[in-house]
Write a structure and sequence with these properties.
The protein is mainly alpha-helical. It has six helices and three strands; from the N terminus they run αααααβββα. The chain has a domain of about 100 residues. The radius of gyration is 16 Å and the shape is globular.
Length: about 150
């Protein structure tokens, strides 16, 4: 099936390139909800594209089973962000996000290492009290999809 609604994005690897471009833009503006949501949508929608494009290679005929087989907590977070921001709420969330927002840090991320200083960042608050840094989760998704699709290059 040839995509007709996505301009020059015609295959999963094109959508992965979009995700990487979104992520690179996010690296330069890590407090942008707009860019973060764009990243989440690209990461999550790759699931549907890869399912359709590689059915004959990954062996799944059911989208739900394929999604479950990916076994990625980071992708589950992207599901909730992408679909929750699209629909305003979720009837069947995959994670236990209770809130999301901007943590106002004391330092600018451009000048200081994320790991060593209190920099501004987008965070996800979880039901168990854990606070999750969006940057790390979307970075994990970029790595996940890059590695997954590299399997089909050989």
């Amino acid at each position: 099936m040839q995509p007709v609604y996505s301009f020059e994005i015609k295959c999963s690897k094109d959508l992965l390139r979009k995700l990487i471009e979104d992520f690179n833009e996010f690296k330069g503006n890590q407090s942008s909800s707009r860019i973060a949501i764009n990243c989440a949508m690209s990461a999550w929608h790759l699931t549907d594209w890869v399912f359709e494009e590689y059915k004959h290679k990954h062996g799944f005929e059911d989208l739900g089973l394929f999604r479950s087989s990916l076994n990625s907590h980071s992708l589950s977070l992207m599901h909730d962000i992408a679909n929750g921001s699209k629909h305003l709420s979720l009837s069947r969330p995959k994670t236990e996000i209770t809130d999301s927002g901007l943590h106002e840090g004391d330092f600018a991320f451009e000048d200081f290492a994320r790991e060593d200083f209190d920099v501004s960042r987008l965070e996800l608050k979880m039901r168990n009290g854990e606070v999750v840094d969006f940057y790390g989760e979307i970075e994990e998704c970029v790595s996940f999809w890059s590695e997954y699709l590299n399997r089909f290059d050989s």
